[in-house]
Specification:
This protein is an alpha+beta fold. The protein contains five helices and four strands. Helix 3 crosses helix 4.
Length: 180
């Protein structure tokens, strides 16, 4: 119980909560429509985004449209003495833009990336299954990053430049990178 009390004192609060002075974000997040993204990984990301923005299936009109261009791939990170791969990285990168439909203005845009990886085994089936799982995890991370950035914008649209600056530091891309 004590950790919850300490956590409450640090200023953290759920995005979907209605805390008196702050408006609840659930209706605003639900007003974000997601354009279909090509290919199977794109469909997975589209569904992750739609479920994340509107988990309660609120029937609110669409006020924003999110357009995403997805790229994904693999890269051998380590090799064995016989030059075969011993570790493979799986990455997903999404360039995205949020457009307000009332004035057809792009109000926020960015790039989100995630990377996971796995050891390459002698069992090809295990490699295929692990690769698919890694891609799903990377897509989930990309979706979480996009949702967080859009939520920050919707909470305080006047701080859009600060949201962009917060996620574009010294690295060569925006968003998280996590290796497993």
């Amino acid at each position: 119980m004590l950790p919850l009390v300490l956590l409450a004192g640090c200023g953290l609060h759920p995005l979907y909560a209605d805390s008196g002075s702050e408006k609840a974000l659930a209706p605003e997040l639900a007003s974000v429509g997601v354009d279909p993204i090509a290919d199977r990984p794109g469909q997975v990301l589209t569904n992750e985004l739609r479920d994340g923005f509107n988990p309660q299936s609120l029937g609110v009109p669409i006020e924003y449209r999110l357009h995403v261009v997805l790229s994904q791939g693999t890269q051998n990170e380590m090799t064995r003495p016989d030059t075969s791969a011993s570790r493979t990285a799986v990455f997903a990168a999404a360039k995205w833009s949020l457009k307000r439909l009332s004035d057809d203005k792009t109000v926020l845009s960015g790039e989100s990336r995630a990377q996971t990886g796995h050891d390459v085994l002698t069992n090809e089936y295990a490699n295929v299954v692990t690769g698919k799982s890694d891609l799903a995890n990377a897509l989930r991370e990309v979706s979480d990053d996009i949702q967080a950035r859009v939520a920050l914008y919707l909470r305080a649209p006047e701080d859009a430049e600060e949201v962009k600056a917060h996620y574009h530091g010294d690295d060569d891309f925006g968003g998280p990178t996590r290796r497993k």
